[in-house]
Write a structure and sequence with these properties.
249 residues; 6-stranded parallel beta sheet
C-alpha cells in the first residue's frame, strides 16, 4: 500500500514538480497569493494534470505543522525507500566517479535535510543512513534540503557495518571524520571510488563504524571550537573531495 506525505514550501514543491511530478497527487495553494513563484508552480502543476485546490492561510498552517508553507503544500506519494541492493547497483554504475556520503545516526531533520542539500550540490552517488538511527524524508527534512531530497538517492540500510564491508569489497575506499585524530582531510586522497562517513550530532561515529574505515581524518580548526555542525562538516569534506577530483562548475 502506497504511503503519502505532505511536501511543504516553495523549494521542496518545485523540486518534486521538476523531478517526480507523477507522484504529486494534489497541490494546495493559499487563496489570493501574489507570489510569482507560486504562479509558476501552478502553471507546472496544470501542465502535468495535477489537481489544484485553494484554501485559506490558516488551513494551510494546520496541514503543514511546524514547517513554513510559504503558500503552497503538495500531497505526495512516497516512493519506496532504497536499500542495500539498490546501493550496490548505484556504486557499480558510478564506477571510478563513485562518491557516497554515509551518515551514521544523524537524527535531527534539519541536519539531515542540510546534508542532502550539500550532497545534491556535490552530485554524490548516494546518501546512506541506517534504518534505526535516522529520520526519514519528513516534510521538515524535505524543506531543509531545498529540493536536494529529490535529486540524490537516499538509501536506508539494516546493517551499516555490512554495507561498509560490501562497499569496500567493491573497491570503495572509506574515510571517516573524527576530531580526535592527527590526519587532516587535506592529506587524504579522495580521488576514485570513495565513501565519506560522518557520525551523529552528539556521539560521532560508532566504534564499529570507525573500525571499518580505511582512513580517519579531521577538519583542521585553528579557532577555539571543538567541532562543526554535521551538515557544515559534510559540505566542507564533500567539496574538498570535488576539488581533488578536479570538478568544475
Amino acid at each position: 500500500m502506497a504511503t503519502e506525505t505532505w511536501i511543504v514550501g516553495i523549494n521542496p514543491v518545485e523540486g518534486a514538480l521538476a523531478n517526480d511530478p507523477e507522484r504529486i497527487r494534489e497541490l494546495l495553494v493559499e487563496q489570493n497569493s501574489k507570489n510569482a513563484r507560486i504562479n509558476e508552480i501552478l502553471a507546472a502543476a496544470r501542465k502535468h494534470g495535477i489537481q489544484v485546490r485553494t484554501m485559506g492561510k490558516d488551513q494551510l498552517e494546520k496541514m503543514s505543522g511546524e514547517a513554513r508553507h510559504q503558500g503552497v503544500v503538495a500531497r505526495y506519494e512516497t516512493p519506496p525507500m532504497l536499500g542495500e541492493n539498490d546501493l550496490e547497483s548505484l556504486v557499480e554504475k558510478a564506477g571510478p566517479d563513485c562518491l557516497v556520503l554515509v551518515l551514521d545516526g544523524v537524527t535531527d531533520p534539519h541536519n539531515l535535510g542540510a546534508c542532502l542539500r550539500s550532497a545534491a550540490a556535490a552530485k554524490v552517488t548516494a546518501v546512506v543512513v541506517p534504518k534505526d538511527r535516522a529520520v526519514g524524508l519528513t516534510p521538515t527534512v524535505r524543506r531543509a534540503s531545498a529540493g536536494g531530497a529529490d535529486l540524490v538517492p537516499l538509501v536506508a540500510v539494516t546493517n551499516l557495518a555490512r554495507t561498509l564491508r560490501s562497499m569496500k569489497d567493491a573497491g570503495v575506499w572509506v574515510t571517516g571524520l573524527a576530531g580526535e585524530t592527527e590526519q587532516s582531510i587535506y592529506q587524504v586522497d579522495f580521488k576514485g571510488p570513495v565513501a565519506i562517513v560522518l557520525g551523529s550530532e552528539g556521539d560521532g561515529m560508532r566504534h564499529l563504524t570507525r573500525e571499518l574505515c580505511d582512513f580517519v581524518a579531521k577538519i583542521p580548526m585553528p579557532g577555539n571550537m571543538e567541532s562543526l555542525n554535521v551538515s557544515v562538516a559534510t559540505g566542507v569534506v564533500l567539496f574538498e573531495a570535488l576539488r581533488q577530483r578536479g570538478v568544475k562548475k
